[in-house]
Amino acid sequence: MSAFSPDAARAFSGNWGEFRLAAAERFAAAPMPTTDEEIWRYSRIDKFDLGAFVPKAPVTEVTGPPDLASFLSTDTEPDVIGSDAPDVFAELNRAFMSPTVVKVPAGKVVAAPIVVTHTVSGDGTAVFPRLVIDAGADSEVTVVERFVAADGAETDAALVVPVLQVNAAQAARVKYLAVNEVGAATWQIGNQQAVGHRDSTTLLATVTLGGDYVRARTEARLSGQGSTTKQVALYFAGGDQMHDFRTIQDHDAPHTTSDLLFKGAVQDSAASVYTGNIVIREHAGGTTADQTNRNLTLSEGAWAESVPNLDIRTNDVKCSHASTVGPIDEDQRFYLESRGVRPEVAERLVVLGFFDEVISQLPSGAVTDDLRRRVADKLDLGTREGAAA
Amino acid sequence: MATLKIEGLRASVVGKEILKGIDLTVSSGEVHAVMGPNGAGKSTLSAIVMGKPGYEVLAGSITLETGGESLDVLAMPTWKRAAAGLHLVMQYPTEVPGVQLDAVLTEAFVSRERSTDDLDGLIRSEAGRINFDERFLTRSLNVDLSGGEKKRNETLQLAALAPKIAILDELDSGLDIDALRDCARRVEDMSNDGDEPLGVLAITHYSRLFDELKPDFVHILADGRIVETGGAELAATLESDGYGAFAPATEDSADASANALADLF
Fold first, then answer.
1. Region A337-346: what's the mean pLDDT?
2. Phi, psi of A253 (to 5 degrees)
């Protein structure tokens, strides 16, 4: 644990020493979570060994429009970060973070997407990227954050603990997409937190294909009247992978609208968990909230769990949730095969069609074409029963 | 030329015998109508020819003679039956979200080792022939389509894939009179093709289908058996007298379970 000691945190980089020290001390004082806790119930946290890792700065590259430098920095004020962490991993990020800050001035429309790429090397490296998107009033920005394995490190052990903070000021429009394609032995435990102020619109999108155990907690808080948030995710786990999502739609102001669509697939002996909660506070009347989670189980040995929750504290709301777990629809498969489509191709078409509803809502077109191909490639990796004749 | 031979076919669903010995032979260029009351086993027959899961064949055989070969249809997986030249136009075409017509036809052509170079033009010209609005071509298969549009979509696929023998499972149900005319006329044209005329097994309740699609033979299916075979005039007799004259006087009706099954289509 000494690699993550308070002293190590204070000395981690040239700035933020006392802030890091305080966070590392809070981390050291808190117990590591166990699967006895409800929020970690289905997770692999019992297999987690922090001692196997050493904190390092991530290799981060940012591309974007020509005037990118005018609103991009690697530093910010500690009070932007705040002091409440939803779990110990967010706290650990605070101690060892490497911030990327996108601060869009009021009224500015950033036409081209900003792409932040973290390349994760192996050998027990632990990285703590923190992305802050601070969108000024009536501004507009799209940010894509990619997590990829370094060349040659695709099967090395690594730990990624990212934190995303989105602040959408009045009438701001923010679109965010995280694409996870880390190596097969990489653990990733992330937190996403978005706060939408009056009349703002925020999209939090996630695509997870990589990793060994990948967990993301994604929270959208609607703190201003008339604000709208949408959370979408595509996840596809194969081999022994596990993808674990916790979502929160927190309505903290009247006349707010949230929507959520998470679609996942599991094959081989992979597992996935979705736990979602809609919170509608007493003063959040006139609110609409929808939550949909659908899962395809493509192999006998694969496992998916879906747990939707509602916490509604006022009457004047329109709320819906839907959740399904099951194999590919036999009628859809038969329909395609009756046209002469081979069974494995029919399965690929149905799975891609299943994900299309999410892909069509992702913010960046260039990323999505490639995504269809990568989802299709992943389908071919596994050897599944039930696909013959 | 191709011939589909169904001989002594008996089949059951969830332990209940629905088909009790069917003999039918359909050759290229022939139009056979199979008519019968609800629960007679009409949809079961089409499902078994195409290999839909959930049906058990108890006895009999289905053979497709084509290109000098004699294929044991019941031993083939569904996709190979289709690639060999059998096609099913479904009564209730399945919605396949996120999958578009061109993707399915592309893969269907690849299975048949047919070039896809002119596929886009073929889809557009076939859509035009049956008045299928081009804006529907990019929708997910059968999603948000009306009954008539679904049947036009089915007919478009039938024409593009150009099978040897087509089974139409109630092509005439759930669509308006204009769509019925467009679809039935296209099938009639295919059955009259000078080079490769389509063989048709048209399952239906009603004779209105025959305003455009002219049957050479009419078979009456009741309680799992063909009880009468004749020419087009038999359909006219049915129209005036109803099925009562042909239905067997037995309590052992397949209605209940066959109706439950028909709901699956």
1. 96
2. -160, 155
The reply to whether A191 falls in a domain is yes
Residue A335 to residue B82, Cβ atoms within 8 A:
no
In chain B, residues with a C-beta closer than 8 Å to the C-beta of A349 are 96, 99, 103-104, 107
For residue A274, count other CB atoms closer than 10 A to its CB. Answer: 26
Q: How would you label A151-178 residue by residue, b for 16+ Cβ within 10 Å and e otherwise?
A: eebbebbbbbbbbbbbbbbbbbbbbbbb
Torsion sign over Cα A11, A13, A16, A19: negative
In a domain, A388, yes or no: no
Residues A25 and A85: their CA atoms lie apart, in Å, by 13
Q: How far apart are CA A150 and CA B238, in angstroms?
A: 74
A335–B94 C-beta distance less than 8 A:
yes
Set of chain A residues whose Cβ sits within 8 Å of the Cβ of B46: none
For residues B12 and A78, give the distance between their C-alpha atoms in angstroms, rounded to a whole number.
72
The CATH code that applies to domain B2-98+163-262 is 3.40.50.300
State how far the Cα of A167 lies from the Cα of A171, in Å rounded to an integer: 11
CA distances from A84 to A27, A223, B60 (A): 12, 17, 73
Nearest to B98 among A334, A340, A354 (CB): A354
The percentage of residues in chain A with a pLDDT greater than 90, rounded to a whole number, is 85
- DSSP label at B134? G
pLDDT of residue B245: 74
Within-domain flag for A306: yes
Flag if A356 and B78 touch (Cβ within 8 Å): no
Cα atoms in the 13 Å half-sphere on the side-chain side of A270: 34
* Residue B106: both structure tokens together: 């592309």
Query: What distance in Å separates the CA atoms of residue B54 and residue A325, rounded to the nearest whole number?
Result: 22
CB within 8 Å of A52: residues ≥ 6 apart: A124, A157
Domain ranges of chain B: 2-98+163-262
* Predicted confidence (pLDDT) at residue B251 exceeds the cutoff of 60: no
Domain boundaries, position A296 = 2-381
Asked if B143 is an interface residue toward chain A (Cβ–Cβ < 8 A), one would say no
Name which of A342, A352, A355 is nearest B79 (Cβ-Cβ). Answer: A342
Domain count for chain A: 1
DSSP A261-284: EEEEEE-TT-EEEEEEEEEE-TT-
pLDDT of residue B39: 83
The answer to whether the CB atoms of B96 and A334 lie below 8 A apart is no
Question: Do A339 and B104 count as a contact with CB atoms less than 8 A apart?
Answer: yes
Residue A298 has what pLDDT? 95
pLDDT of residue A365: 67
Task: Pinpoint the alpha helices (H) of B112-241.
Answer: 119-129, 147-161, 177-191, 232-241
In A, minimum Cα distance to B105 occurs at A339
Bridge partners, A311 (sequence order): A279
In the block, tokens 């379970």 appear at: B257
What confidence tens digit (pLDDT) does each residue in B184-231 have?
999 999 999 999 999 999 999 888 899 999 999 999 999 999 999 999
Using the beta-carbon criterion (under 8 Å), do B79 and A355 form an inter-chain contact?
Answer: no
The complex's ipTM works out to 0.92
- Judged by CB atoms closer than 8 Å, whether chains meet at B108 and A356 is answered as no
Residues B155-192 have pLDDT tens digits of: 999 999 999 999 999 999 888 999 999 999 999 999 99
Domain assignment present for residue A96? The answer is yes
